[in-house]
Design brief:
By secondary structure, the protein is mainly α. It has a domain of 72 residues. It is built from 4 helices and 2 strands. The chain has a two-stranded antiparallel ribbon. The longest helix has 31 residues. The protein is elongated, with a radius of gyration of 41 Å.
Length: 172
Amino acid sequence: MRFCSRCGFPMEGAMVLLAHGGTLPHYEPAPGEISPRRRGVKQGALLMLIGAILVPMLGVMASFAPGRLDNVFGFFAALSAIICFVGGPLSMLFAALFEEGARPRGYVTPPTYASPSVPLPIPPARVAALPPQPAKLASLWPARPHTAELAQPPSVTDNTTQLLHKSESESE
């Protein structure tokens, strides 16, 4: 990333605008393609969702099953819990770290700007001088009242000046 040496503004956006004639590039997504990374993350999330439905269902069936079926449903509930709740996140982690991401998208040139078919109105000619000054509009405002609520603070030099007068009279 490049930055302006004076103000620190990131130059990448300005360079893209200059390269494309002042328009932002339009990237076209690839239709219907899902990257292997995204597919792996989706499969892991689906496995966890299936586990959230399957494990409680097998647990309820194990609690109501008589005798020997209790062990079978309990075994399948434990096995599905391990597969879904350990395998799902591991599948998502593997896909996020090691699978290939989406392909870079190609730049699609935007259509060129076509001028409008309706002629634009001609702007008025520029005037070289400023408009005349309005006639004393400031006098229409009411005068600001003088409240004198705040006393003027004494000058910083007053105390020093008084000390100088004292030292002169003592020296005489």
